[in-house]
Design a protein that fits this description.
mainly beta
Length: 126
């Protein structure tokens, strides 16, 4: 019902920055929250950041806290992930996700989300 399209990935050197975008479209545009996850080759998908659409509360994984910032544009139904001080360990495919159900999620578990984008590659060289 909701389609998500990520963009902004690319190749950067360690210490550089990237800004990812995720635009939502489709029959249902109202969301409860949106988040970012990532998956590196041979590793499981892990939580990166999320934002509560109602109050704007932000959630971050310990590994990115202080370096990444999640933000939203309600009018454009878009969520952003500003990534600074990138490290080689940040290399992964980054996915955005949307939750359309109300409730009391933690925002940190992939199973709490209802729609997923196709992902955008982020590669950090050293």
């Amino acid at each position: 019902q909701v389609q998500l399209v990520e963009s902004g990935g690319g190749l950067v050197q360690a210490g550089g920055s990237l800004r990812l975008s995720c635009a939502a479209s489709g029959r249902t545009l109202v969301v409860y929250g949106m988040g970012w996850f990532r998956q590196a080759p041979g590793k499981e998908r892990e939580f990166v950041a999320a934002i509560n659409w109602s109050g704007g509360s932000e959630y971050y994984a310990d590994s990115v806290k202080g370096r990444f910032t999640i933000s939203r544009d309600n009018a454009r139904n878009t969520v952003y992930l500003q990534m600074n001080s990138l490290k080689p360990e940040d290399t992964a495919v980054y996915y955005c996700a949307a939750r359309v159900r109300r409730g009391y999620p933690t925002f940190r578990r992939g199973g709490e989300y209802d729609n997923w984008g196709q992902g955008t590659q982020v590669t950090v060289s050293s």
